[in-house]
Design a protein that fits this description.
CATH class of the largest domain: Mainly Beta
Largest sheet: 6 strands, mixed
CATH architecture of the largest domain: Beta Barrel
CATH topology of the largest domain: Butyryl-CoA Dehydrogenase, subunit A, domain 2
Number of helices: 18
CATH superfamily of the largest domain: Butyryl-CoA Dehydrogenase, subunit A, domain 2
Number of strands: 14
Length: 490
């Protein structure tokens, strides 16, 4: 089957009937018709249609060994040209949603591809676990599956360096093993689009010290005992005029509850294994390929933000002010920097131990760290330039009421009529000030570890011995200079 259409995705998700709870009620009926879910499901379905569109299929897919077309995110790159193909496909999908969909299918499909390429690691516990990973990849490619994932434990006690093990453990863990598989009880956090994908991939959080949470597996979203508890929806049932982004792209983050869930042996990649819990990240190319997808999405998102801000400026004719030009130039610099990070990673790409052409890690880590710090300034710039215009924004019903003539007169812009001006400013508001917009900001800052932890990771992981040696030679320093920082870290 390979590539599916948007309608096939919708039909498949409706047929799954996973257990999803929103606002204290279990979702019933078709997911695609639920008020909190229909917007994101429709937007996601559009991605599959783009993938099959004759104008896009050549750069959105590749030919498998069986002769079928499969989504480009599943392609294991062997050359730098393959990395470029992946980049083009990632950005094409991102443009459909302004880069605002962090869990478009290519994100998890990329992660699955990288884990599969290094599946040999899993043989250290059981050769069948390696094959389980390969089987999942092949099934995903054949049926164009979508995934969500959860890597994070509940925040019970962040004052300690490891999990707090109480009488009743809350983190998802193994309670027992049976002939059929392992039994999981507990919870995990932040399954974005939880219940809106075919399966969920579960992998351990980094730095764990308790074997019972050191597990990797995948499950269908409708597995008995698997429950998704969603946060408040930011799609408030408003029109796309009133909430242009929240009504389309709210992905609904979820807590995942495992209520004595049976994970069959054929779905397991490893279990109770602290060594593999770290090796799957350290010895695979998970980070590089995943962040390559992320940074390309962020580039498109920055372009969307730049376009929105420039429309605001044109509408109210403030482009002649020096401080306005300075603020826009900051966004342009961020955009070009992110593009350069990606190109640098591709130019320096090398074949990894698994035969995969892998982007250089350092530029991508620098991009993540930079974007986590710069993104909040985008919101600040929108708010400064929009000012009271981001508050005085009536809704669609107001324009369809007897007061329409007042709005047309008093809310017109220098270069736009009142309705278009309000549309532009509502978009800017939804980007920077609404519940949807502030969640976007938090997401970009913390979804890969937070600005401080990213900076620390960059500092500790960036190779700079050649630069140090160069300066020592310049100063004619022959004695070894003790690196106290390395000693402390070791």
């Amino acid at each position: 089957m390979a590539l599916i259409s948007g309608q096939q995705y919708i039909d498949r998700i409706n047929e799954l009937k996973p257990e999803i709870w929103i606002d204290g009620e279990q979702v019933s009926g078709k997911l695609s018709e639920h008020p909190a879910l229909k917007g994101i499901i429709k937007s996601k379905a559009k991605l599959y249609d783009i993938q099959k569109d004759p104008d896009h299929i050549d750069h959105m897919s590749f030919t498998t060994h069986s002769g079928e077309q499969a989504g480009m995110a599943f392609l294991p790159p062997r050359t730098k040209e393959d990395l470029e193909r992946r980049r083009i496909a990632i950005r094409t999908w991102a443009k459909s949603c302004g880069g605002l969909m962090g869990r478009s299918p290519d994100y998890l499909n990329t992660i699955l591809m990288t884990f599969t390429q290094s599946a040999e690691l899993l043989k250290s516990q059981d050769p069948t676990f390696c094959q389980n990973m390969i089987n999942l990849y092949e099934k995903a490619v054949t049926h164009d599956l979508s995934f969500t994932h959860t890597f994070v434990h509940p925040q019970v006690n962040r004052g300690r360096l490891q999990l707090e093990w109480a009488d009743k453990q809350v983190a998802a863990h193994i309670t027992r093993k049976t002939n059929d598989g392992i039994i999981i009880r507990g919870a995990r956090l932040l399954a974005t689009q939880g219940g809106l994908t075919d399966e969920i991939i579960v992998f351990p959080q980094g730095g764990i010290s308790e074997p019972s949470v050191g597990n990797g597996f995948s499950l269908p979203a409708n597995t008995p005992g698997l429950r998704f508890i969603a946060r408040e929806s930011f799609d408030y049932g408003k029109s796309q005029f009133d909430h242009p982004l929240g009504s389309r792209f709210d992905e609904l983050d979820s807590i995942v509850v495992f209520d004595d869930v049976l994970v069959p042996w054929e779905n397991i990649f490893f279990y109770e294994n602290l060594e593999l819990s770290q090796e799957i990240y350290d010895k695979s190319s998970f980070f590089q390929h995943t962040v390559h997808q992320v940074v390309n999405r962020c580039i498109v998102k920055t372009e969307f933000i730049l376009g929105t801000i420039q429309l605001m400026i044109h509408t109210i004719n403030i482009g002649g002010y020096d401080h306005v030009q300075e603020k826009v130039s900051d966004i342009i610099i961020a955009l070009e920097a992110m593009k350069a990070f990606v190109l640098s990673s591709e130019i320096q790409a090398e074949i990894d131990r698994w035969g995969t052409m892998t982007p250089a890690k350092e530029p991508l880590l620098a991009a993540l760290t930079y974007y986590a710090k710069i993104y909040p300034t985008f919101n600040e710039i929108i708010q400064i330039l929009g000012a009271s215009g981001l508050v005085s924004i009536p809704g669609e019903n107001d324009f369809n009421s007897p007061i329409r003539q007042d709005l047309d007169l008093y809310l017109q812009g220098a270069n736009a009529n009142a309705e278009d001006r309000v549309k532009i400013f509502r978009l800017a508001w939804d980007l920077s000030m609404s519940a949807f917009g502030t969640r976007q900001s938090l997401y970009e800052q913390y979804f890969f570890g937070g600005p401080l932890s990213l900076s620390k990771r960059l500092y500790l992981g960036y190779y700079r011995d050649e630069q140090i040696q160069w300066v020592k030679e310049f100063l004619s320093i022959e004695d070894e200079v003790e690196d106290d920082e390395k000693d402390e870290d070791s």
